[in-house]
UniProtKB/TrEMBL annotation:
GO cellular component labels: endosome
Source species: Chrysochromulina tobinii
Classification via PANTHER family: FI18122P1 (PTHR10555:SF170), SORTING NEXIN (PTHR10555)
Start and end residues of each PX domain: 1-125
Name this polypeptide is given: Sorting nexin 7
């Protein structure tokens, strides 16, 4: 059992660095952790590091997305800074959903980096982050020869997909486009509500001024200004709710899940290329060794022993050259074994991940849309209540 909540955001401003961190509370019976109940404070960059490590170490898994790094509602009135309370609330909800989905994933929950993220002290986590950054940089610095071989392999025609992967690839591309379009369209409706709240912020004071100039309607106009201000607050709460737990949050998260599914398919393509490259490199190294062996097979050994094997004569003819060729073959065999392992791992998990994607997506939308409908009904009821109260006031006016 691993239960995780993200609460209590704190804004830290000072000097050139400003950030918000969150309280991550953990309740668990997992023996990997020293305590059963504890908490740490983490900032967005820490979550970003964890997701990067999971993506790197589990290329066949659909890693849940993080909430957007930038404020997606900057165009909305009152949403100018990334330290805006509404934006922080949306980020908090998104970060908790990310951790809960990771904790519910059979493979991701076993990641040592997750334990580090949840348990390490701040300086220990920073040390781990620095170490992983160095490892990532080293992995990017391929030799010129390896880079050229990799480029040559990538220029070759890719092995055709089987029917299952081909169908999954088409689905992932289409689903991502559709859900992202739906997210943009719904965000436009949320923007309309935010714009209406902005208009009400001007309309309420206008009626307040009218109450001072029209004595006979002073009280009704005062009620009007008050109810319009209440409607403005209601609209702003609706906008916030949409981003935290409403349809906007649901669509944004599922667009991120679809993007992660596409990343898994890209990882599969990369693993296939790496496996093909490693196979060709091993074949090349093996032929180089065989050619050298054949060239030196008829040379008399320096030792008078007549029972020396071919390999022994090979090394005795030119020990340094033979040793280098043998080392290259062994390295190529090891690289092929690693590439084979990654390729097998991704192919083994991709079907399971796809099924899990469909299952969780169906659950998310079934639950999320019910919540959205109830939220809309409550929103409409609250609006009507304010208008009915105003109607009761104006019906009393002669």
């Amino acid at each position: 059992m691993l239960d995780i909540t993200v609460t209590d955001p704190e804004t830290h401003k000072g000097g050139t660095v400003s950030f918000v961190d969150f309280k991550v509370t953990i309740t668990t019976d997992d023996p990997r952790f020293q305590l059963r109940n504890f908490f740490v404070r983490r900032r967005y960059s820490d979550f970003k590091w964890l997701r990067g490590q999971l993506t790197l170490n589990f290329p066949g898994c659909i890693v849940p997305p993080l909430p957007p790094a930038d404020n997606p509602a900057k165009a909305l009135k009152g949403e100018i800074k990334s330290f805006a309370p509404d934006f922080i609330a949306r980020r908090q909800a998104g970060l908790e959903l990310f951790l809960r989905r990771v904790a519910a994933h059979q493979q991701l929950v076993a990641a040592p980096d997750l334990v580090t993220f949840l348990e390490a002290k701040v300086w220990e986590l920073q040390t781990a982050k620095n170490a992983s950054s160095s490892t990532l940089l080293d992995s990017m610095l391929d030799s010129t020869e390896a880079s050229l071989r990799k480029y040559a392999i990538m220029m070759q025609k890719k092995t055709p997909d089987d029917a299952e992967v081909e169908g999954l690839r088409a689905f992932a591309s289409e689903y991502y486009s559709v859900v992202e379009a739906a997210a943009r369209a719904h965000q436009a409706t949320v923007s309309t509500i935010a714009d209406a709240a902005g208009d009400l912020s001007n309309l309420g004071p206008a009626f307040d001024l009218l109450s001072q100039s029209e004595r006979e309607l002073s009280l009704p106009f005062t009620h009007m200004a008050r109810e319009l201000d209440a409607l403005r607050e209601l609209f702003l709460k609706q906008v916030q709710a949409e981003g935290v737990s409403g349809l906007s949050a649901l669509l944004t998260f599922n667009a991120g899940m679809a993007a992660s599914l596409k990343d898994v398919l890209k990882n599969r393509d990369h693993a296939q290329l790496e496996f093909s490259k490693s196979s060709q490199v091993l074949d090349l190294r093996t032929k180089e060794r065989q050619s050298w062996q054949m060239a030196n097979a008829d040379k008399p050994p320096p030792s008078p022993r007549a029972d020396q094997s071919l390999v022994a004569r090979m090394f005795s003819a030119d020990p340094l050259k033979g040793q280098k060729l043998q080392t290259k073959v062994m390295e190529a065999e090891r690289e092929l074994e690693e590439a084979q392992g990654i390729w097998d791992e991704i192919n083994k998990s991709i079907s399971v991940e796809a099924l899990s994607f469909h299952r969780t997506t169906n659950i998310d939308f079934a639950h999320g849309l019910r919540e959205h409908i109830n939220q809309q009904l409550a929103f409409e009821d609250a609006q009507q209540q304010h208008w009915r109260q105003l109607l009761a006031v104006f019906e009393k006016v002669p």
